[in-house]
Design goal:
Elements (H helix, E strand, L loop, with lengths): L8 E6 L28 H13 L4 E5 L3 H11 L5 E5 L5 H11 L8 E6 L8 E4 H8 L4 H7 L3 E4 L2 E9 L2 E8 L7 E3 L3 E9 L2 E5 L2 E5 L4 E4 L5 E4 L6 E9 L8 E4 L6
Parallel strand pairs: 1-2, 1-4, 2-3
Antiparallel strand pairs: 3-6, 4-5, 6-7, 7-8, 8-15, 9-16, 10-13, 10-15, 11-12, 11-14
Helix pairs in contact: 1-2, 3-4, 3-5
Amino acid sequence: MRTDELAPVIPVVLSNRSGTDPGPTASERGPGQFLPLLSGLSRFQETVCRGQVETGEQPVVVCDLEDRSLVERQLRRLGVTPAALVWEYAVHSTASAVAAAALAIGRDRSDALLLVLPCGGPQRESFLVSRRVVLAELSMPLPALTEAVVGAVVRRPWGTYRSVDVGPQHQVKRLVVEPGHRLSLQRHQRRSEHWVVVQGTAAIVCGEESRVLHENESAFIPVGCAHRLENPGSRPLHLVEVQVGDYLGEDDIERLADDYGRT
């Protein structure tokens, strides 16, 4: 795909949407998009492949939480590792899904364009939108877009996170870190964070300090402080993160070291 800018173009595959309606109709939901067509691929898989061919990039996939296993299985069959998986507890509008996808893209793609590809509609219903424009809309008091932030589950290499509350200058997330995994060593310029361990054990780095947190213990991460979260245990780590600052976007992440090559 050619654009007037040198910005990367990220395919965003929207499951269960036609692209023109505010949200999916009853006939657009369900397993139909995952059934094989004459090509041997499902409509969902064909949409993923189309996005990769047109952009050369790994997709961000937004889907129903109920379809999680189908989506992951069909991506594996294609040999595709998505840039991010966003699971919605309740399917809202196409605009809210695009907002959730924009939030799931990291700082290194802050200038990206999003090629939005609804699975349920014809090719002409795809469209291109700037990630910066979408995030600018999120800074406005628009309830429909706020719904995209609250409740959507975002898959990362280390586990998942889900926003459970968003308001002026604060956001609350629920993180699940898989055993033996850790987040990048990172810092933020415009927000501080409070971590509370709900279940499991957390090994944390905060500046020059390293320590272990157990259930019902907490840590404060100041603005600009290099920090890292790790699960050294044998069961998933559940942690509540409260972010406070004048900007809470995912692009306010400066990765200093990363196990998954994202620096």
